[in-house]
Structure formats: structure tokens, C-alpha cells
Amino acid sequence: MYTDPTTIRPAARTRRAGTLALAITMAFISFTTIAVAAEPTPNSPDEPIAKVFSGRKATEFLDQVSASWTSQRKCGTCHTNINYMLARPALGAATPAMTDVRAFFENRVAHWEDKEGDAKPRWDAEVVTTAVALAFNDATTTGRLHPRTQQALDKMWTLQRPDGAWDWLKCGWPPYEHDDYYGATFAALGVGCAPENYQETKPALEGLTKLRRYFRETPAPSLHHRAMLLWASQKVEGLMTPSDREVTIRELLDRQRPDGGWNLASLGDWKRMDGKANPKDAPSDGFGTGFVVYVLRQSGMTADSPRIQRGVSWLRANQRVSGRWFTRSLNNDKAHYITHAGTGFAVMALKACDAIDERGE
Q: SS3 of 205, please?
């Protein structure tokens, strides 16, 4: 299934990415009707900065882009509606968009065992991402483990490899659909967040034993993935040593830019589809800043820490007029879908730092 993208000529790599994109889009056939959402405006680095921060505008953007993706593409994707399931509760009460997106994922789980071929999950990654998205959403909304969430988590373990990881999508789209290590960290995060002490169930205990061994034996390929493991290690014991946590935190802080933000490109050594390197000195962006501030807060750094406050100030000062925070794609300059995930992490970071009030402002 996997061809190393670094060994493919740029034109061939583009064709392979297009083929995988179509496959992923077709992978999650919907069995629920979602109202067709308005098409969001394109992500652009030229969009003006908002004069003042608005949680309401962030809500509108995330609702619009995630409902639109789900209704039109009928699939789940890490950079948009999967991240939305994690981030949306930070902005307050559920809207019809949140209800519909959540129902889409629940309905996928409900039909995974149907005899029809289109109902079944086509990729192991679908099972893992759906399970984690539902578990995180349960934890940040009702605090109860939904039956569909447990069903998805239990199925996830049946797909775990003997080495502890899962066969992940390798489309050459970092930091998500890129390598097995990301999928392993994401699975650990979901199990750790799942309510009602799910991680103490028999399937989880057995699966986490394999996961711990995987992380001991497999070096993280990027600082981003070490930060993911740092996040998951706050939820599940034995994933990371105290010294490794300290080193990761220090390296994350070292990447902070003079303006108080971070950029995604500095968290890894990923190349663009044309073979060029992503510049480590790129401007601060929504993903880099939101992700790092949120993970540092999860690691125990206080919200009033000067380094955290500088990141918060950057986020509140760099929202775009549409409500999003722009992040340049690590792959090409067409759609910049990573902006959607960056916006999700931005609101999660602000919420974690008490920088969004009860009205979402």
C-alpha cells in the first residue's frame, strides 16, 4: 500500500496524492443526512487581520468549514472535521453543525459491520481517528462514554499491529497522513481522554501495553510528534520518561519566535511536494502557535507564564476577519487546509489559557 513519497518524482507523487485523496474521500460513505453547508471562502495568506478577536467569528468559521466538508465530501479528515470534534467544545454550546458532524461519525460506527462493502471502514486510520474524535468529544461535552465511542475504541484494538502501532495513511501530507507514529500518538491520546476510565478496560490495558513498547522502541520522527506524545503522556502513564518530557518542553520553547508565536514548519523536517524544504524561519502561524501553547498547558505550564502569555497575545492579535487563523500548507500552495486544524488548536489554546470567556469571546 505504501510507496515512500521521497522516492517518487514530483509529478508522480502528485498523481499518487490525488489518487489517495479520492480514496480517502470515498472511504467514509455517510448514512446520515447532513444539511449542505455554505462553501467557506478559500484559505489565503492575504486575508486581512481582524481588528479585534472574536470567538463568535471563530465559531462561525469552524462550524461552516466542518459542516461543509462533511456534507460535501462525506468523509472524515484530520485537518478539518476530526480536529473540529476536538476543538469545537471550547467555543461553547453545540450548534446544529456540531450536532450534524457528530452524528455523521456516530453513524459511520453504527454501520461498520454492515454487509454492504461501502459501509465498512476502508482504512484502519478511519477507525482510529473516528474513535479518538468521539472519545475526546465525549470528554469535553457530556463526560460520559457514548456506546458508539466504546464500539469504535474496541474495534480500534482489533486493528493494532503486534508492534503496537497501526497501518496509517501515508499520503505524504505531514504532520497527519504521513507516518505510523502519528497514528500511534493519536490513538494513545484518545484512549487517555476517553471518559469513565476506559483505559482500564481489558482491551485498552492490553493495547496500551503494546503502545508503551512501541514508543520505547521507536524514536519520534519530529518534534511535532514528540509534542503529541507529550500531550498523550499527560493522559496515559508510562508513555514518556520525565527527562524526555523536559527535553521536549525545552525544545518547544526554543522554537518560539520573537513575536511570541510558533510556526508549524519549525516542528519537523518535512519537504514540500516540489522537493523544497519548508523554511524553519517562516512567519508564526495559527497551527504552530495554537498547538504548542495548548500542549504546553497540558504539560503543566501555567497560563500566566510569560512564554504562554506571549503566545496567547499572538493568537488574539492574528485572527483573520473570517474568524480563522492562517497556516501555510507544508505540501503546496493550493488550499492550505491545515488552516482548519490551526484554527481548532488556536481556540483550544485560548480556552486552556482562560482567554475565551463563557460567551466565547
A: helix
**Within-domain flag for 361:** no
Each residue of 69-91: pLDDT tens digit? 999 999 999 999 999 999 999 99
Indicate whether 360 belongs to any domain: no
| Residue-wise pLDDT tens digits, 33-54 | 444 456 789 999 999 999 999 9
Q: How many domains does the chain have?
A: 1
CATH number at residue 210: 1.50.10.20
Please, are residues 61 and 87 in contact by the beta-carbon 8 Å criterion? Answer: no
Say how far apart CA 50 and CA 60 lie, in whole Å: 14
Give pTM, 2 decimals. 0.90
**Residue 78 carries which DSSP code?**
I
Q: 239: which 3 cell numbers?
A: 508513555
Q: Where are the alpha helices (DSSP H) in the chain?
A: 10-27, 55-73, 83-87, 96-111, 124-140, 147-158, 180-193, 202-217, 223-233, 242-254, 286-298, 306-317, 338-352
**Does 188 map to a domain?**
yes
39 occurs within a structural domain: yes
Residue 200 and residue 207: Cα distance in Å, rounded?
11
